[in-house]
Amino acid sequence: xxxxxxxxxxxxxxxxxxxGYFQKAMLGGCIVAIVSGVVGCLVVLRRMSFLxxxxxxxxxxxxxxxxxxxxxxxxxxxxxxxxxxxxxxAAVITVALIGFVSRxxxxxxxxxxxxxxxxxxxxxxxLVSMFRxxxxxxxxxxxxxxxxxxxxxxxxxxGIAAALVLTVIVLFFRYxxxxxxxxxMAASIGLPVLLIEYVFTTCVSLVVVSAVSMVGVILVVxxxxxxxxxxxxxxxxxxxxxxxxxxxxxxxxxGGLYLCTWLDSAGGxxxxxxxxxxxxxxxxxxxxxxxxxxxxxxxRAIPQSLREDILGVVLKKExxxxxxxxxxxxxxxxxxxxxxxxxxxxxxxxxxxxxxxTESGRKEADRIRRAHRIWEAYLQHVGTPAEQIHxxxxxxxxVGGIATVSYLDDLLGHPDKDPHGQxxxxxxxxxxxxxxxxxxxxxxxxxxxVSSIGSAVDGTALKAGDSVRIRKRDGQGRWVVLDESxxxxxxxxxxxxxxxxxxxx
Amino acid sequence: xxxPSSFPDPVQTPAIRIQNLTVSYGPKPALLDINLTIDPGLxxxxxxxxxxxxxxxxxxxLGFVKRDIGDVYIQGIPTEKxxxxxxxxxxxxxxxxxxxxxxREVALMGRYGDLPWYRQxxxxxxxxxxxxxxxxxxxxxxxxxxGQLSGGQQQRVFMARALAQGADILLLDEPFAxxxxxxxxxxxxxxxxxxEAGKTLVxxxxxxxxxxxxxxxxxxxxxxxxxxxxxxEVLHEDLLSEVYEGRLRxxxxxxGNRGDK
Lengths: 505, 261
Prior knowledge:
heterodimer; A: alpha+beta; Arc Repressor Mutant, subunit A; six-stranded antiparallel beta sheet; three-stranded antiparallel beta sheet; 20 helices; B: alpha/beta; six-stranded mixed beta sheet; disordered N terminus
């Protein structure tokens, strides 16, 4: 390899590693990233993202409190464990206050979170500035974090916190999983759901507190949520999601640290930027839940309207070569796939390169033709200009389904011809031998036995059990039937709807 | 019980016994003086209009609500001590279907109640889960994420979990809400199989028209217990119009249809 390239690689990747501060940042960052990745999964699934934000802000009060406590009582400056404990206490108090406010008032939880965390944060800021002569905390440092200036004490504290939290999560994995997924079931088998929630909140506080020194108050919630969200888009199991999330956290830290040395930027910012870019890549490219695959699926799906159009073309032509179908309809690639799919599903049969409708294909095509012609009749009924009727009906025939068409059919008085004088097919799903069908839906020549008659119909005309044959409708559009004795009886629309006839086999 | 052979003990403990139960939220009672004994091995539907206290009724069987007066016994044990004796099947709308969890993992949750925290599920637990999945015919979907199932399959996964829990009493919250007719039949089939296996099933149901056909017994509640008995006893026009206050048009039809059978 060219020595120049080697030298560049050495400069870019190896040299930073030889710096003590870089090693420490890498170690501390990875510890924090792993544990926030794991905990973050549960935060995402429990929809508690805002809580992470709240906790990180609230802890400044705890840091100040812990600092003051040790300084006043023991005269120790910036005692890290005390500040850590103070932060966790502040976080837990904040959570308790949030719960309290949303329980005792009509203020909902999201608003309660907003009120309480800014309140506790403000208390912290006031405290720090009031005692600025005693407390040597740089608020900016606190807000922005300083991953490249990690102190040994911070490293130790985050190490202990991480070990503790990971142990709890691994040991009680099942409890966290169940209470996140189905708290009702968890309570019903006797799990202490409330206790689990408190333990979990404490875990989140510990993680947040140990991460703030690295990436700062503002970005910590990102480190908690973003890797978990990336992993969420890639996994169908919680355990796997946690593993991936920890991995994404680690890669963000490593990538971000290099980024910040190369660009000479803020460490925390670079880490979160890298993490966010990583999420965007996953969002686009994830195999199942990504945007690209969703778009591909949509593109590959054959729309219902195209399926119906293909059946319509074959119905019209009786038999049709693939070329004819492609010629009639646009989008050859999709149409070709549509034809193959329909043949696969048994709607079309192929003989000597000609497609024709199978029995189920014909039924389906009749259903569509019926929908089309009823829509045409309806469009004429509502006064649509004649030249628009066919086009509009062609769009509308795909709308609705059987109930829509039945409704329109009834509204129009069950016409048997469309505005162009073409016959409207009967509903193929209804016209089965032995089925009970209202007289109003029957046509000339059909026969059956009356199975019931609505109470509004003149009882002397027909009774249940009579065999009848249906005749053409008369001049007034009334339904005419011939009974056993050959007498004609006629019914108006309303009565015909309630005369139910069981079709002959 | 008409079929004593499946229950060898002639003096059986009632599956659920509720005595003088009153539960209130604020000044208005959600449930008032409920007395009810449900024998084992029955498929029981709980019906009543919206806001009639059906969900409070369910919660009190699970031991989740604070009772003002009264007691609830599950197989003779006070409900607060009877954790795990009742398996709960949630409403479909109450589940996060995007949760990263597979069919098998959901069914395995049924075993969690019997597992101490330090122990992993054993071969026996996995065998129970297999049986439960088999019973609801979901074995082939074991490794699917639950969001990728149809409505009826989703319902069956939670049935499997309830069966894996090994509880004798199953509590289902509106399993028939928002599913099509074929799915409804498939779910009913699973309910019948569970009943044959000796389970007691208590099902919150909203559709009066199918209630008579589906259930052995019906509980009609609106704050008070209006009736408990066979569908023919409960689906009375007077009773229904009193409970539903004439908000339901189909009484006449319903009661009429029952007369035909």
